[in-house]
Amino acid sequence: MTFNPRVDLRVPFVEKEDAKALGARWDSQKKLWYAPPGADLDPLKRWVPKDFLAPTLSTLVSSPDVESEKGISLSNLLSQVRGVIEEGMPVAVWVRAEISELSGKNGNLYPKLTQRNEQGDILAQSKSVIWKSRAAAITQKFTEATGEGLKPDIKILCLVKVRFDPLFGLDLIIEDVDPSYTVGDLAAKLARIREWLVRADLYERNQDLPAPVEFVRVAVISPESSAGLGDFRRETDRLQHAGLCDFLFFGATFQGVNAPSSIRVAINEALGAHRQRPFDVLVIIRGGGSVTDLAWLNDLELAQLVCRSPIPVLTGIGHERDSTILDEVAHRRFDTPSKVALFLTTTIRDNALAAITALAQVKLQVARILTRERTALATQADRLEAGVRSMTQQAEDDHRKFMSVVRTATHYQLREASQSLEVGWTRLVDQAEQTLGEAEFQLRQSMETIAHRSQLQLGTQTATIEKAANSIALQATAKIEAVASELEHGQNQVARDAARWVKAASVNLEESLASMARRAVTTAEVAKNGVESYARIVVGLGPQATLRRGFSIVRDTANRPITSREAALRNAEFTVQFHDGNVPVANREFDRKGV
Fold first, then answer.
1. How many CB atoms lie within 10 A of CB 217?
2. Which residues are registered as beta bridge partners of 108?
3. Across the chain, which distance is largest between two alpha carbons, in Å?
4. Could you list the pLDDT tens digit for every one of the 595 residues in the chain?
5. How far is it, in rounded angstroms, from Cα 317 to Cα 324?
6. Transmembrane residues, as ranges (predicted)?
7. Which candidate, 344, 349, 348, places its Cα nearest to that of 332?
């Protein structure tokens, strides 16, 4: 009996009952069923591939034990594989996978499906195809749900029919795609990141930073050639050219698997520049995109970096309906880059208007103070001029009085000197006359004595008489000359003393006048310096300068200043403004009093 060795499907894929009904014999060594020639193979068509039943492949042998060519052909092997696959997976199944590559031809789409582990290693991959007849419907359905069609690097849930061809190998035919899985996967990832940030107490850290009140230096992270960056720069370049705000741009990739690391590098570069010269705010913009594009921004490490940023972060990702984790943890989120630019421009404009208003108020106050001070200065100058005139007049009066006193004193002293001179002269004359009288009296006595004794001592006393007469005459002459010299010296001393007294009085008068003039000039300088000091104080009374000197402004919820403790107790909440930002304050006294 001969057998058809081509019917060689293996157990358990061949039903034993069907094989026995054909009269087939089982070869336990080769693990094959052998059907006899001429056997009716129609019952096997429901599970045996038709290629197995081709006439060209039904080679007859005399016996299974007859020696034949060793092994089977490749086509035989692959045909058996196809039969196993088609038997084992007769219907389509839903498969979770990631699109790693995507190409198209003749209307057909050829995604390459991949599965990765947590570390990003590839665990499995396979070719797949979406036939032209289904490609348009599947793409439209996916686009309506996610905002963009199928693309690489996204996860999908697809309905797959397995097909194996001995010539082209294994293919997965995608018959449908569930876009909700893709959206749900992105949402689940976002939820996991959000939960981790909340547990780490990072979620609101950047939001808790003081809101910037002015923008002078701004860091911007954006794709280098995006439409959103162009919209942003159309608004901000005017501020840059006007010198109102300095913008530094840091390029980064916002799509693809490298997007998170590229943005992290850009943020670190911006923070490095911030340490050298501080920024007021860090702006992250991109300018629109689909849900799947936004998914690359939902990165845990990137979110942590934004949360820990020491400067407030503003985002303008460009998507109004969907948000990323960066939008959630940023200090403030905007829908588009243009709205971020408008916010910056509006803030700078409002601050400028407020500064102009404040400057006008300061100028008005300064003008009022200067007017008041000019009036006070003019009044003081009039008083000073009157005082100088009064002091000058008083000095002139004092000078006249002093000169009168000097003249009177001089006249009195001259008169006293003259009287003293007359008294001295009279005394000297009296003394001279007295001396002469005494000399004459003595001479007469001597003459009488001589005459009386001349008779007795005429000879011996003649020389003595002459000598005594000469001595008396010399003494009288010496006394007269001494009195005359003393009188002349007294007259000269009186004249010198009178001249010295007059000169000293004149010098004292000149010094008094110079001192009064110096005091008048000093008083005018002091008044001028006081006015200039008041002007400098008024100029330094601006709000921002006052805040920088350590003062602060307390405002209520309506942004009105609170100027007293009683007014503060009437507010449950208020804000304390410092030069670098505001701090909200809850009034515990308000709660305690139950106001």
1. 15
2. 105
3. 235
4. 334 444 444 433 455 666 666 677 766 655 566 666 666 666 555 555 544 444 333 333 333 444 446 778 888 888 888 888 877 787 888 888 888 888 888 889 999 888 888 766 888 888 899 998 888 888 888 877 766 678 777 788 888 888 888 887 888 889 888 877 766 666 667 778 888 999 999 999 998 999 888 899 999 999 887 778 888 888 889 888 988 899 999 988 887 778 888 999 999 999 999 999 999 999 998 866 555 566 777 888 989 999 999 999 999 886 655 578 888 889 998 888 889 999 999 999 888 888 888 888 888 888 888 888 888 888 888 888 888 888 888 878 877 787 787 778 777 777 777 777 777 777 777 776 777 777 677 767 766 776 676 566 555 655 665 676 577 667 757 766 775 677 677 667 766 776 676 677 667 767 766 776 677 667 667 756 765 665 566 556 556 767 777 778 888 888 888 888 888 888 888 898 887 888 898 887 775 554 4
5. 8
6. none
7. 344
Q: How many CB atoms lie within 10 A of CB 375?
A: 10
List, in order of start, the domains of the chain with CATH numbers: 16-86 (no CATH), 91-177 (2.40.50.140), 202-335 (3.40.50.2300), 371-526 (no CATH), 545-593 (no CATH)
| Nearest alpha-carbon partner for 369 in 539, 526, 525 | 539
Task: Please give the single-letter amino acid code of residue 236.
Answer: T
